[in-house]
Amino acid sequence: MDNEKLNLPQYDIPDDIQNAVAITTLDRLYNWGRRSSVWPLMFGLACCAIEMIAAQAARYDMARFGMEVMRPTPRQADLMLVSGTVTKKMVPAIVRLYNQMPEPKYVVAMGACASGGGPFKEGYNVVAGIDKFIPVDVYIPGCPPTPQALIAGLIKLQEKIDKESLKKVRWYRKGPDAVEIPVPILGPDLIDPRRSAEIKQIAAAVKEGAS
Ligand code: SF4
Question: Is 40 touching ligand 1 by the criterion CB < 6 Å?
């Protein structure tokens, strides 16, 4: 462990025990553990996923960041890497997987499609960014982002984790933040249950206008 970094809380350690004692804060220790073992969920959506796979191979070696253990189940994953075009058909599955991941959990939107719809933004079957449904921590631009760009995004995520505090993180809070995200319903179009009141209001207004 990097003693110099852990000694940042500024307590003076006598010279004779410098190599035996490290003083740190609970937040720093907790964040160091989290940021060094972010396990991504193993799934990909489109072409960006190929770059994600390349980033996991020997040349880029995400093991250096403790992120090489891609989990085949959401229950063992900390990180959802949304890599590819998010179609309306996939959104219910993505939200369900997100809900099944235990806290603390993080989301990275990899590429133009996952961040905002990308080249298919106007498509009838594509959503304009996964952040319409689940909270995103880091956005990585590009079409596709290279493995280097993905790694840069993951380093940004680590920097974000470094700034967390046990007193403030949402997974120890009570209240609406801890509630599951309702799974969108795929019918003729995608319906977000969180907007059902608004949708009913618009439908009523249209009906009234037509009559
Ligand atoms: S951002 Fe580009 S490379 Fe990535 S999934 Fe969309 S079209 Fe494919």
Answer: no
Residues of 112-146 as b/e, b for ≥16 C-beta within 10 angstroms?
Answer: bbbbbbbebeeeeebbbbbbebbebbbbbebebbe
Our answer on whether the CB atom of 161 is closer than 6 Å to any ligand 1 atom is: no
Looking from the CA of 23 toward its CB, the CA atoms found within 13 Å total 10
Instruction: For the chain, give percent helix, strand, coil, nearest 5.
Output: 45, 10, 45
**At what angle are helices 147-162 and 47-56 packed, to 10 degrees?**
70
Query: Tokens at residue 34, please?
Result: 């989290």
Query: How much is the pTM?
Result: 0.86
In this prediction, residue 107 carries a pLDDT of 97
Is the separation of the CB atoms in 182 and 81 below 8 Å?
A: no
Place of tokens 């309306």: 88
